[in-house]
Write a structure and sequence with these properties.
Bound molecules: pyridoxal-5'-phosphate
Largest sheet: 7 strands, mixed
Radius of gyration: 22 Å
Strand order of the largest sheet: 2-8-7-6-5-3-4
Distance between the termini: 51 Å
Oligomer: single chain
Helix content: 40-55%
Strand content: 5-15%
Shape: globular
Length: about 425
C-alpha cells in the first residue's frame, strides 16, 4: 500500500526562489558563470557583534531550552529597538521571539483565522502566504498592486473586502513590499487603520525590510492608535543584520496576543535557540552604524540597477520605495518573444548562453498579478549587476534561441499577451 499524503501537502506550493537557487547552484557546480539575483539574501557576513556574542554564548552553553516567549533580555532589547526606530511605546511583554519572520505567518493565522474566513493579501505577494492561509482552510482574497500606483495598497479593495466578503477576518500587509518594492505611505496606513479599527479584523504587518526604505522613513501600523490591539508586526534579523541562517526574528503586539502566539510557539517549536537571541541583542545594541552602511550600499545598488535596466528598450522599471529588489516590467519584451516572464527568467539562467547566465525570478512566482515582471535582487557587487543587465539586454535579442528553448519548455510559452 502506498501511504497517501494529505490534500494540503499535495497542493502545497513553495518559494520559487529556493527552486531557482538550486538550479543556479547546479549550473555553477557544472562550471557555468551565473550572476545570482534570485534570492533575497544579504551578501554581507553576519553582523559582527552578533557573531562574537553568538560564539561566546555557545561557549557559555546557552544551548538548552528556553522560554517559548523568548529570553527576557531579548524581549526587552527588541522592545527598546522598535520604540527607538519606529516611535512605538512597547515593553518586553509585547515581544515574542521567533525563528525569523516567516514562522509568524503561520502562528498569526492559527491565532485568529478559522476555516473559510477571508484573508486579504496584496499581490504580487510573498509566496508563503497562500500555503499558510490554506493550512488553516481559510480563503485568500487578492487585491492587485499596480505599478501605476507605485505598488501601494489599494484601500478601496480593503473597504470592499470588509463590506462584501462573507467572513472577513485578516489582512496581510507587507511594507516595504516583496517583490515589488512598494512602500505604503503613512497616510495609506492611517486610512487602513481607520477602516479596521475596533472591528474583529486582525492585521499581519510583515516588516522584514523595515531598514530598507529609500525615501523618508519606515512606518509601522503598530504606531497608530488602537493598532497594537489588533495588529501583529513581524521583524527579522535576516535582512537588516545579514543573519538569515541564524533564523532569528520577533513579533510585536498587545500582551494578550503575544501570550497566545507564545502558546502556539510552544506547540510548534518549543523555543528559539537562546544563543541566537543573545547574538541578536548585541546586533540591535552595537551594530547600527554597520547596519546603516550596508543599507546605504543596497540603496546605491538599487538606484544603479534601476537606471541600467531602464536603458533596455521595452523595459519599464520603477525606483522602488524600499527593499533590495527591483521589479521591472518586461511585458513588452515577453509579448514580442511569446514567452512568459518566468520562462524568460529561466531562459536567462539556462539557455541564453552556454557559459554564462543570470538567475532571477518571473513575477508570476509571486502570484498572477506579477505576470510580465521580473524580480531581481541587488545582492551582488556593482560590476556584476552591470554585467547582468548587459547580458539580459543581449539575450533578449536572440529570438532563435528563445524559440528553441520554448520548443523544449512548452509550459513557458506565453498564453495571452501581457498588458504592457
Ligand atoms: C515579505 C517577507 N516575509 C518574510 C520573509 C522571511 O524572512 P525570515 O528569514 O525572517 O523568515 C521574507 C524573506 O525574504 C520576506 O520577503
Amino acid at each position: 500500500m502506498q501511504i497517501s499524503f494529505s490534500n494540503f501537502s499535495n497542493s502545497v506550493e513553495t518559494e520559487s526562489a529556493f527552486d531557482v537557487l538550486a538550479v543556479a547552484k547546479r549550473l555553477i557546480a557544472g562550471g557555468k558563470d551565473v550572476i545570482e539575483l534570485e534570492i533575497g539574501d544579504s551578501p554581507f557576513p553576519s553582523s559582527p557583534s552578533a557573531v562574537k556574542a553568538g560564539i561566546q554564548a555557545i561557549r557559555d552553553d546557552h544551548c538548552h531550552y528556553g522560554p517559548s516567549t523568548g529570553l527576557p533580555e531579548f524581549r526587552q532589547a527588541a522592545a527598546e529597538y522598535v520604540n527607538r526606530e519606529y516611535g512605538l511605546q512597547v515593553s518586553a511583554e509585547n515581544v515574542v521571539a521567533g525563528p525569523g519572520a516567516k514562522n509568524f505567518e503561520q502562528l498569526f493565522l492559527e491565532a485568529f483565522v478559522n476555516p473559510d474566513d477571508g484573508v486579504l493579501v496584496f499581490s504580487p505577494h510573498f509566496p508563503t502566504y497562500p500555503p499558510n492561509i490554506s493550512r488553516r482552510g481559510a480563503r485568500m482574497v487578492v487585491s492587485s498592486l499596480k505599478q501605476s500606483r507605485d505598488f501601494r495598497p489599494n484601500l478601496d479593495d480593503v473597504q470592499r473586502f470588509l463590506t462584501d466578503d462573507p467572513s472577513p477576518k485578516a489582512i496581510f500587509l507587507n511594507t516595504p513590499q516583496n517583490p515589488t518594492g512598494g512602500v505604503a505611505t503613512e497616510k495609506d496606513l492611517r486610512e487602513l487603520a481607520d477602516l479596521v479599527r475596533g472591528r474583529d479584523i486582525a492585521v499581519f504587518s510583515d516588516e522584514p525590510y523595515d531598514q530598507m526604505v529609500w525615501n523618508g522613513k519606515h512606518y509601522s501600523p503598530l504606531a497608530l492608535p488602537g493598532m497594537l490591539e489588533q495588529c501583529v508586526a513581524a521583524y527579522t534579523f535576516s535582512k537588516s543584520f545579514s543573519m538569515s541562517g541564524w533564523r532569528l526574528g520577533f513579533a510585536v503586539s498587545s500582551a494578550p496576543i503575544i501570550d497566545m502566539i507564545s502558546k502556539l510557539t510552544n506547540t510548534a517549536l518549543s523555543c528559539v535557540p537562546p544563543f541566537t537571541q543573545l547574538a541578536g541583542i548585541e546586533a540591535m545594541q552595537n551594530d547600527l552604524e554597520e547596519r546603516d552602511r550596508r543599507m546605504q550600499d543596497f540603496h546605491d545598488k538599487v538606484r544603479q540597477l534601476v537606471d541600467d535596466l531602464n536603458q533596455i528598450d521595452g523595459v519599464n522599471c520603477l525606483m522602488p520605495g524600499g527593499t533590495f529588489y527591483v521589479f521591472p516590467s518586461f511585458a513588452e519584451i515577453c509579448n514580442q518573444l511569446g514567452i512568459s516572464s518566468h520562462g524568460l527568467a529561466m531562459f536567462l539562467l539556462e539557455a541564453a548562453d552556454d557559459q554564462r547566465g543570470v538567475a532571477c525570478l518571473g513575477g508570476e512566482c509571486f502570484g498572477e498579478a506579477g505576470h510580465g515582471f521580473i524580480r531581481l535582487s541587488v545582492a551582488q557587487p556593482s560590476e556584476r549587476l552591470r554585467e547582468a543587465v548587459r547580458f539580459m539586454s543581449d539575450s533578449i535579442q536572440q529570438g532563435g534561441r528563445v524559440a528553441d528553448y520554448l520548443s523544449q519548455h512548452e509550459h513557458y510559452r506565453q498564453k495571452t499577451p501581457y498588458l504592457a
